[in-house]
Specification:
26 strands; 713 residues
Length: 713
């Protein structure tokens, strides 16, 4: 268990060019004023939309390892505080899980958190977060809010003065309790040491990093390790049977929540020990005793393995796994990698590569000033000798510490994007199949030690799973949109004297393809318009919609009257044996005589706006849904269509929404049509869709067809 943090130094040893450690003192004062037990200060990186953790207090830096460098667009409290220039309050474990699930996955403990921007009226310099134990009230008090806000304002003013004076902010040590030094068994006074030695149970003192500062003789006996070998080490490193992430998690949980925590562990071959952790802001006191027989619990023996850097690795992987599960399409994966992984591993740019037809395909990139530097590699044959193709085809990662190393291994490679000096090429392998390569670029030479290579390779596996899902989604989505575009008319061809505009929006659930349709059939001397809705929003509904639309066109072109067209289409649907039904509204337009003849099959009634602005819902005669009864008839209704009139035809996705009465929705749409009905038809179509609550939620497909009578040709 390690936090990767260097030992704390006295401020004088840091080479500071200012009188006092500005950030550390500000953070310590802030935490003391509101009785917080941990916190951190972030500063904005130069010329990058990235927040970098400058100093942390009260907890090891490893606990926040996934967020040491975070993009400003990341969905975490400190980034949100800077973006919104406001205080962000998270009232507890449930609130964290609901609003910031990625953090809750890594730190599933009861604690409260406040994040604030460090900013003046003109410029943001960074952010601060502080935390309290889970016992803190669910709301931040006015006193706490005022103290935190004032402290951040003071810090921002000091940072502004330092910037004006060209005084850089030096690196400062984190505010953690230092390790107790001395001989094991020494506890302040001789008498205190004697008292502890007489106790029948073990006592161990851990600092905030989990290092042993004291262990009495009973603890050494119970753990089976001499006290001298425990001092200054981590229990999880010096006691092999405690080398398990579950026990590390109890340590983290106790420190973050400041709640007493306990667990039982098996000391081989069969002794069960009870550990009780008492936390404070300076570390933990651990009480060790023999547990009752718990062999029947069937607890598995703890795993062994390297522990020093695992805490960082586990938290990073958990956080990034949570982020990548939110990715839908390929570009979502690219953006999440740029926002989450690039800052956390210290790189400055990323490229995702795939393959198509035996050639390299650039799926996306971020961090390159000139996109052409990356995109010109799109289409390169996979047989070309270059690291991107080699990693993609072999599945073996490649790391280049410097430009010289890359040039030495690939002397024929020229024209790589400038401005970068080190690269990590990670194979993206999902289900044993390579799906791409992730290229991380670093602006400075960067050494990749073995543990970092292992972490990056593991992250590559997570990216690969997300990318494989995204590629499949994009392929299905492209197929769905292509099918939908093929089934709907590319353009409307209204007859002389009629202006038309249409909109189609697929449902946001499912494959974004549906059974709503509209069309205009420019037959002579009278044209026809139709709108309909097949049940469902899937491929089956879309296919049936295409058959209905084709049938309507054929029957109209054959010269059938409106009621005959509707009847023939109904029988066609019955003969097809489909399990789905469809609603439909069919119009035969006669602009010369300023009228329209309509037939309706279970479809929502259209709205008619008169030239004087009055709007009414047309109560049309009609028959049942198409596809139910082969012998159904569909009577027609004649409607006056004076010059300037507007007909609004729509599917139920425009007006039906959970919790909204249909009559109210129609009345609302009528009022809007009365107000803006004189606007250009294309603009009117946009306004009707934008104004609809149901269209915003889009639990169903939405189709709208607007017709405006222009008068006799």
């Amino acid at each position: 268990m390690s936090d990767g943090q260097r030992p704390a130094q006295a401020p004088e040893a840091t080479g500071s060019r200012v009188g006092q450690p500005l950030l550390s003192l500000s953070l310590a004062t802030m935490m003391d004023e509101v009785h917080a037990h941990s916190g951190a200060v972030y500063l904005l990186a130069n010329d990058e939309p990235v927040l970098e953790m400058a100093v942390v207090a009260g907890l090891p830096r490893a606990f926040a390892a996934p967020w040491e460098r975070v993009g400003l667009s990341a969905p975490i409290p400190v980034a949100e505080a800077v973006r919104g220039r406001r205080l962000v309050w998270v009232g507890g474990e449930d609130d964290m899980a609901r609003r910031y699930p990625r953090i809750a996955v890594v730190l599933p403990y009861p604690f409260a958190l406040a994040a604030l921007p460090v900013a003046t009226a003109d410029k943001a310099y960074g952010a601060v977060f502080v935390t309290w134990p889970g016992s803190h009230p669910p709301e931040l008090s006015d006193r706490e809010r005022e103290h935190l806000t004032a402290a951040c304002d003071r810090l921002a003013a000091r940072l502004e003065r330092a910037a004006q004076d060209n005084r850089p902010i030096p690196r400062e040590p984190d505010l953690l309790a230092s390790t107790v030094t001395g001989v094991a068994g020494t506890l302040g006074t001789v008498e205190a040491a004697r008292m502890v030695a007489r106790l029948p149970y073990g006592l161990v003192s851990l600092d905030l990093h989990g290092r042993v500062g004291f262990a009495n003789a009973a603890a050494a006996e119970l753990l089976g390790t001499p006290a001298g070998e425990l001092l200054g080490t981590h229990l999880w490193a010096s006691v092999p049977w405690l080398n398990d992430p579950m026990y590390e998690d109890r340590y983290r949980g106790a420190l973050i929540s400041q709640h007493v925590t306990s667990f039982v562990a098996l000391r081989p071959p069969g002794d069960w020990l009870s550990f009780r952790l008492y936390p404070s802001t300076t570390g933990l006191s651990v009480r060790i005793s023999r547990a009752r027989a718990v062999a029947e619990m069937g607890r598995a023996a703890p795993r062994t393995g390297a522990g020093p850097s695992r805490l960082v690795t586990i938290s990073q992987v958990l956080s990034l796994a949570g982020a990548l599960t939110e990715a839908v399409g390929v570009q979502d994966v690219v953006q999440l990698v740029a926002d989450e992984i690039v800052p956390s591993v210290g790189s400055q740019a990323v490229v995702l590569l795939g393959s198509q037809g035996g050639r390299l395909h650039v799926l996306g990139h971020r961090g390159y000033a000139n996109p052409h530097h990356v995109e010109r590699f799109d289409g390169v044959a996979l047989s070309e000798r270059m690291p991107g193709t080699h990693v993609l085809t072999t599945g073996v990662p490649a790391f280049f510490d410097s430009r010289q190393q890359l040039d030495r291994l690939y002397p024929e490679l020229t024209g790589l994007p400038g401005g970068f000096a080190a690269w990590a090429y990670l194979p993206l392998i999902a289900s044993g199949r390579p799906v791409g390569t992730c290229v991380l670029a670093y602006s400075e030479p960067h050494v990749f030690p073995a543990d970092e290579r292992a972490v990056l390779t593991s992250l590559g596996g997570l990216i690969a799973q997300a990318l494989a899902r995204a590629l499949l989604y994009d392929a299905k989505n492209q197929l769905a949109h292509g099918l939908q575009e093929a089934l709907l008319p590319r353009s409307l061809m209204p007859p002389p004297g009629i202006e038309a505009a249409a909109r189609y929006l697929p449902a946001t659930q499912g494959m974004e393809i549906g059974g709503d349709f509209y069309d205009m059939v420019p037959t002579r001397p009278l044209a026809a318009a139709v709108i309909g809705d097949v049940q469902g929003h899937n491929v089956t509904a879309a296919g049936l919609m295409g058959q209905i639309r084709t049938g309507v066109r054929a029957f109209t072109t054959g010269g059938q009257a409106p009621e005959e067209v509707m009847g023939s289409t109904n029988r066609l649907l019955v003969d097809l044996g489909a399990d789905l039904f469809a609603s439909c509204l069919y119009l035969r337009l006669d602009p010369d005589n300023e009228r329209a003849v309509m037939a309706r099959a279970g479809h929502p009634p259209p709205l008619l706006r008169r030239p004087d602005g009055r709007v009414r819902v047309l109560d049309l005669a009609g028959g049942p849904l198409l596809g139910i009864d082969a012998d159904a008839t569909y009577p027609t209704t004649e409607v006056d269509l004076a010059r300037g009139s507007v007909l609004v035809l729509y599917t139920d996705g425009l007006i039906e929404s959970p919790g909204v009465d249909i009559e109210d929705a129609l009345a609302d749409m009528g009022e809007l049509l009365n107000t803006i009905g004189d606007r250009p038809l294309e603009q009117l179509a946009d306004e009707l869709v934008a104004h609809s609550v149901a269209a915003r939620d889009r639990v169903d497909d939405v189709a709208v067809l607007l017709l405006r009578a222009l008068g006799r040709a």
